[in-house]
């Protein structure tokens, strides 16, 4: 909870107010002379794609800032942290809009993917680009006079490059040519997840908070390593919940099996399956026929993947905790632990 | 011509050598752990999309630097100018790869569009993103210690934002809904061209050279205005040559009429056509049937569009020259004139 004007106000509400401010700034950007049509287009595009997620990444910038400051943020500090949080959300929106086009997906956050709207179609590709361009516009407007402005630009550029590179790995591993399970190995999986998800989802929010606190990121390579590990663990959970989670909790019905996804579950299954079981996977993985999905799920049960996941979760947690406790700064330890406890044993 | 090791060496050859150096840097970027497959993918993708154009934009950074310095560039200065020139070319490659997907085009620079290659397909969208990410990687590697580093980042971010915004205008004006010529008006045309083409093709190369020369861009808003005007004139030429140019000179057979493009020619024709002529346009513009194309071309002849273009070219030139001569700096005047004389009355 953040305090404003002496009253406790819901953090998420305050965070969402910053979104409205940023949106109206962008719709009046002097670098472009908007027409009525184009202003309306951007307005709708932003509302459809930016604020509708869980906002965990964005809000964790604010949380991390509070911990690093060891106390409550001033209104100005809250605003700055919130703006950086929204930059993370904007970056994610950009990647999701384009990822849905490339994956030919149908739904996202419980509604049709942006490019599926009849009026939008392939214009969505340029909208993704526009979303990408908004981050530096926001940073320039609100941070250009800060000493850490150039470090923020470098940070967002580096993390975006890593995310796009992870996406490339994913695309050339899992899209190229015919369906081929032989490419789905644990080191391949880990590398894709690290680059495609972990840097922007876990490292970036904390790095934003560290820069705001006046820190030099080169001094936090160990914390970065921990956050990237945590991001990997988070994605393994995501893959687990896609199959074994409760749809009412996770808010969707998983389709990783149908979609031939390079999921932690199938990679693990391929590691431990015998010859017959391998054949079952080859014949049934990546098919939309419900009978095939059922066969894959019952194979996952035969292979005890629930128990193997629980064991993975337990050892990951232990390793993360000891890596966190080896960090020299107590506040950084607290930032990392707070992050870990948000996701440990999550059901959604 | 640039001199190296005391011998005259062809500028373009030297410029292309810098490309090879930049490519190998990118293939060893420590921010990503490349696999053999992904390194090869990027290698091919770059060779296919980055160096195959006329390189006018990139080389004009080097030319502008030489003029601003009033003398020959040192090897180091040549290298820096060349690197910035390649950043402009990379930015263009990024936009072209994505534009071809959005326009569903077939060929580019005399070869199939990148996304048309069977192995590539929609992965091309992410390759566009990777190309976009390369610019800040290159700038960070070669310019991070320069005092103007942050201004380079701001410049590329602003110009990219303007280009993407111009692309949006183009897409929502010319792609949305049914074919509708009533939207094709001169102010609409000018706005699209200014943002989509002029900033990155004309302003950006000169702005790079000004930053390298230690200048503050805020002091050159008049020069910027001239360059944006010149970029508009350049696009009008492009549209003219698409219909009236000699295919052997321009290196392709124009298809703007078939593609229902918002070309200067059709906008002008719509301005001056009588009711019957309007009907001819409505019935024949944007159709691939050669008989329809012939009807549009003969209407353009009836309307004297060649002569109207010549008159436009003459007055544009005069206005540009007097705007150039009003610039306070002689070197800036020379940079702008050299740019103008590269394009005035061009046949290709
Ligand atoms: Mg996807
Ligand atoms: Mg994907
Ligand atoms: Mg998932
Ligand atoms: Mg095009
Ligand atoms: Mg286009
Ligand atoms: Mg053209």
Automatic annotation (TrEMBL), chains A, B:
SUPFAM superfamilies: Terpenoid synthases
UniProt xrefs under Pfam families: polyprenyl_synt
Organism, scientific name: Dendrobium officinale
CDD domains xrefs: Trans_IPPS_HT
The name this protein goes by in its record: Farnesyl pyrophosphate synthase
UniProt-listed GO biological process terms: farnesyl diphosphate biosynthetic process
GO CC, alphabetical: cytoplasm
Entry similarity comment: Belongs to the FPP/GGPP synthase family.
UniProt key word Iron: no
Highest taxon above the source species: Eukaryota
Requisite cofactors: Mg(2+)
């Amino acid at each position: 909870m953040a305090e404003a004007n002496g009253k406790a106000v819901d953090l998420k509400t305050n965070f969402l107010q910053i979104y409205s401010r940023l949106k109206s700034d962008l719709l009046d950007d002097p670098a472009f002379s908007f027409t009525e049509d184009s202003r309306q287009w951007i307005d709708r595009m932003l509302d459809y794609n930016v604020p509708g997620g869980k906002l965990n990444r964005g809000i964790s910038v604010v949380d991390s800032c509070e911990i690093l400051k060891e106390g409550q943020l001033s209104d100005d500090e809250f605003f700055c942290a919130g703006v950086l949080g929204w930059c993370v959300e904007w970056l994610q929106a950009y990647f999701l809009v384009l990822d849905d086009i490339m994956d030919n997906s149908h739904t996202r956050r419980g509604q049709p993917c942006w490019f599926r709207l009849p009026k939008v179609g392939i214009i969505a590709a340029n909208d993704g680009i526009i979303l990408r361009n908004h981050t530096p516009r926001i940073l320039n407007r609100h941070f250009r006079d800060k000493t850490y402005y150039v470090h923020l630009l470098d940070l967002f550029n580096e993390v975006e490059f890593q995310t796009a590179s992870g996406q490339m790995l994913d695309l050339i591993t899992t899209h190229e040519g015919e369906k081929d399970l032989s490419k789905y190995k644990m080191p391949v999986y880990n590398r894709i997840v690290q680059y495609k998800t972990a840097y922007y989802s876990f490292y970036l929010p904390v790095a934003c908070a560290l820069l705001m606190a006046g820190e030099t990121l080169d001094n936090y390579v160990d914390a970065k390593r921990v956050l990237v590990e945590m991001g990997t663990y988070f994605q393994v959970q995501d893959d687990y919940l896609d199959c074994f989670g409760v749809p009412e909790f996770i808010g969707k019905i998983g389709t990783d099996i149908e979609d031939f996804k390079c999921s932690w579950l199938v990679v693990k299954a391929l590691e431990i399956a015998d010859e017959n079981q391998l054949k079952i996977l080859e014949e049934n993985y990546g098919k939309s026929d419900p009978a095939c999905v059922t066969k894959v799920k019952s194979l996952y049960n035969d292979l005890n993947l629930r128990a193997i996941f629980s064991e993975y979760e337990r050892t990951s947690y232990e390793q993360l905790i000891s890596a966190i406790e080896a960090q020299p700064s107590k506040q950084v330890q607290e930032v990392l632990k707070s992050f870990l406890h948000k996701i440990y044993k999550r059901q959604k």
